[in-house]
Design a protein that fits this description.
By secondary structure, this protein is mostly helical. Helix content is 53%, strand content 0%. This is NADH dehydrogenase [ubiquinone] 1 beta subcomplex subunit 9. It is found in: Mitochondrion inner membrane. Its main location: mitochondrion.
């Protein structure tokens, strides 16, 4: 089974036929959602789409099943919507990447007078940074120092 945390281009597991069929079904539903604006019209076409998939769900001959899958991929490709609907926070959506997470090292760039306003926090932070460095050195060893830089 493929790791869902890895990007698609780094996954090495091969998809089963059932996974490919499920993927095709989901992409076809998303395409129908982009094509039909009215909810009732979308649901009607989703029902027709489900009937198409259910028609061949018990196919035992793998060659025919693969042929049906390829025909479905071709049909989806031929009927793709010119402007597919995207989820707002997904890549390609209008809110993707809008809220930027500030990296932790930015706190190290604060002026000492700014840090003085939060003495307990920065004291605890320094302790945690030291603990992190000790754990790193315990696991990976000390970094090699180069004089030629």
């Amino acid at each position: 089974m493929a790791n869902p945390l890895l990007p698609k281009h780094l996954q090495t597991a091969v998809k089963t036929h059932a996974q490919k069929v499920c993927s095709l079904y989901k992409r076809a539903l998303r395409n129908a959602m982009s094509t039909y604006d009215d909810r009732w019209l979308y649901r009607y076409h989703a029902t027709l789409l489900r009937a198409k998939f259910d028609q061949h769900k018990d196919e035992k001959d793998l060659r025919k099943a693969k042929m049906y899958l390829e025909e479905g991929e071709k049909e989806l490709y031929d009927n793709l919507h010119y402007q597919p609907r995207k989820f707002a926070y997904s890549p390609g959506g209008i809110n993707y990447g809008r809220s930027v997470t500030v990296p932790d090292f930015v706190l190290d760039l604060w002026h000492p007078l700014e840090k003085a306003r939060y003495p307990e926090y920065f004291a605890r932070r320094e302790l945690r940074k030291q603990e992190y460095i000790e754990r790193w050195e315990k696991k990976y060893g000390k970094p090699i120092e180069h004089d030629d830089y």
